[in-house]
Write a structure and sequence with these properties.
alpha/beta; 8-stranded mixed β-sheet; two-stranded antiparallel sheet; 5 helices; 10 strands; 25% strand; globular
Length: 205
């Protein structure tokens, strides 16, 4: 099954067109927050970052569902950090904060994952931004053609071959759970924003 998921991902890499909105907001050192529904396509973003020398660790659920996710992340040259749902032990938390100390390293986390509710951010991304003194970068995706699995809590979205994915990046600065920003969701993407298809993200792309 792992090979099937990875094979489809590689096929998408060859056929999908990616457009970037505000790529200059990515400076190679962030807590990267995305919505769980975009977990699969985020591997394409991960490959762009790691392919040019950037480092990205991704927080992954510690149960069996995380096995294939970790496989994809590793194949995309990222690093998976496994953690239990609803808590983060001190050792794991220390590892995450150590990653954030590296100049050209980012940590990615599903804002509402791994079990939702959908589009309701958890506190951990804000905690990591505050304690790691690292800005929170929100990544939202818009698809020209996709499959949405409405039976799942997150409406998990899978892009189709030969489609277009618009990736928007918003830098919220260093935030804390005491002063949370209003996070952008995909329905709010501004299609009038300046879009670039051939772009180098600072340091990593």
């Amino acid at each position: 099954m792992n090979h099937l998921f990875y094979g489809y991902l590689k096929f998408l890499e060859k056929t999908v067109r990616i457009q970037w909105v505000q790529p200059e907001h990515f400076r190679g050192h962030h807590v990267v927050g995305f919505w769980h529904e975009d977990s699969f396509a985020m591997n394409l973003v991960l490959e762009k970052v790691t392919g040019a020398g950037g480092e990205m660790s991704v927080l992954v659920t510690g149960d069996n569902r995380g096995d294939y996710i970790e496989y994809l992340i590793n194949r995309c040259r990222g690093k998976a950090i496994r953690m239990g749902y609803g808590f983060c032990d001190m050792g794991t938390l220390r590892d995450i904060l150590n990653e954030l100390k590296k100049e050209n390293s980012s940590v990615a986390i599903a804002m509402d994952g791994p079990l939702g509710p959908r589009h309701i951010p958890k506190k951990l991304p804000y905690f990591l931004s505050e304690k790691g003194e690292t800005s929170l970068l929100g990544v939202t995706l818009l698809y020209s053609h996709k499959i949405s699995i409405k039976s799942r809590w997150d409406h998990y979205r899978i892009p189709l071959p030969f489609s277009k994915i618009t990736v928007r990046m918003d830098d919220y600065g260093i935030v804390s759970s005491k002063a949370v920003p209003s996070m952008r969701v995909y329905q709010e993407l501004d299609t009038c924003s300046i879009i670039s298809e051939d772009v180098r993200l600072t340091k990593a792309m």
